[in-house]
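User: Can you model how adenosine-5'-triphosphate sits in this protein?
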Amino acid sequence: MTPQAATGADILQVKGLRAGHGPLVAVRGVSFALQRGECVALIGANGAGKTTLLRCLAGVHPALAGQVRLDGNDVTALPAHRRVQQGLALVPEGRRLWADMTVRENLTVALEHRDAARAAAAAEPWSVARALQALPGLAPILDRPAGALSGGQRQAAAIARALMANPAVLLLDEVSLGLSPLVVEEVYRSLRTLRAQAGTTLLLVEQDLGRALAFADRVICLREGQAVLQAACADTTREAVTEAYFGMATAAPLENTP
Ligand code: ATP
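Assistant: Here's the modeled complex, given as structure tokens:
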């Protein structure tokens, strides 16, 4: 499989990224590039290395080898908070918010810690008011403690908090994990608005193959730590993705991956 060739429009370039947990190598030389404004779904079976890869990109997990470039700048050696300041933000699985603080306070703290120069350079910097337009479900819960929110509300609040950094690239880990189908719809509606209104580049881990193919521009399939398929959703089939996912031809394509 040939990684997508990097172009001048690439906002994120990942080359030969390798990461592990102790003796276990979970990400084995992964290379890909994201074009500005693109939405890419990262798929793969449990344990394929998706979360480790995302955490490595965000700088919260160390890379053993490889390079990450954001808008042309090498950020491989930067700690997580410096990557956020440069425009690479992670919405982690489990959506770690400060539970005792209200949604508004969570957002305000993120606003206060963002890179002022980056915000000043943005054509339309994110604010709490703008986040409410993109994620209208947040309005009635702004003054509620984050610890008291439902799963979907926590997800929306975590996305809004990440937006406060004015990210060029938003990394989303398992956005629909543990949410009811109706709430998942709502979260995806918000992501659609985000794409349409702000043109934010998205890299999202999604377990539901059908949803990944329907929502994203492109899909990257990880298997045993390697990117075994990278394809435009319009140019691939569910059969091809299923085969890459499991590493073998299957009798019937997946309806909904585990
Ligand atoms: P899932 O969909 O189950 O979250 P994933 O594709 O995100 O899976 P990772 O969570 O990145 O995969 O895990 C990749 C490999 O690293 C797996 O073999 C997993 O058991 C291992 N692993 C992940 N986190 C740790 C950890 N904290 N300590 C040790 N091994 C880990």
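A couple of observations from the model: Residues 21, 24, 26, 44, 46-52 surround adenosine-5'-triphosphate (CB under 6 Å). The chain has one domain: 10-246.
User: Helpful, thanks.
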